[in-house]
Amino acid sequence: MAAHMDDESLVMLEASLRKTMLSTSGAELDAALAELGWADMLSDAPEVSIPLVFRLLGETGSHASILNDIVVIQTVGRELGQIPELPYAGNGWVVWDYSNDENSTLGGLPLRRVDEGDPVRLVDARRAVAWWLIGASRAMLALARRHALDRVQFGRPIAGFQAVRHRLAEALVAIEGAEATLELPGEDNPDLTALLAKAAAGKAALTTAKHCQQVLGGIGFTAEHELQHHVKRVLVLDGLLGSSRELTRRAGAGLRARGSTPRLAHL
């Protein structure tokens, strides 16, 4: 579906998806995405649909269980509609459980911890969560940037202060670097490339959350401010499918065992 779209059609699709995600979330968003052809998009053009849909989930702050679909189509013996166990930081496992939505303690996501899970293929799933983190990071940066332009101290916007500009710049560099990692081809080493992309996106999101919190100051700590929603979300998403710290260590251990560093990009 998306593979055959021109640029104008993709822009229209993005606008439609954004509008839908801004007005609904959870099980209702799952249903809305199904109507918009999510299954066909995932089947026909995952290289387009996964970055687009999951980035928008991050930017809008909504959520859906479509990560399950990506996991099951890459796992032998799994079919669409099944609910797979997903690895979580600290050797834990979680599943999407909408019945537990109101009592969720994981960043507003309906995730329920389970004792154990079966091995699943995580290449595209890690890329999906990484794009989700990128979208949330850009949302936080936009909030901090707008605050810096609007907040006036000593007769001028705080965006003109060097310390503020440095924090926003460091966040932007982290986001752009993580997105560049996500755009690596990865044909030769898909598992390693996806692992590093997820780690980079998680690190970028945590860096962005820290700097944006500092730029926003006291108002950024309040539960009423939109930033806190994104901060809590990225803390959970960083842990989902392996935290940035765990994945970095895993990648390093694998490279030491291998005794060499594979070429991930041909420059």
UniProtKB/TrEMBL annotation:
Q: What class of enzyme is it?
A: oxidoreductase
| GO MF term list | fatty-acyl-CoA binding; flavin adenine dinucleotide binding; glutaryl-CoA dehydrogenase activity; short-chain fatty acyl-CoA dehydrogenase activity
Report whether Lipid metabolism shows up as a keyword of the record.
no
A GO biological process held by the record = fatty-acyl-CoA biosynthetic process
The protein's matches in InterPro entries, at most eight in alphabetical order, are given as: AcylCo_DH-like_C, AcylCo_DH/oxidase_C, Glutaryl-CoA_DH_mitochondrial
Q: Which Pfam families match?
A: Acyl-CoA_dh_1 (PF00441)
Domain Acyl-CoA dehydrogenase/oxidase C-terminal: where? 123-244
Key word Oxidoreductase present? yes
Q: Which UniProt keywords apply?
A: Flavoprotein, Oxidoreductase, Transit peptide
Q: What is its EC number?
A: 1.3.8.1
Under which name does UniProt file this protein?
Acyl-CoA dehydrogenase domain-containing protein
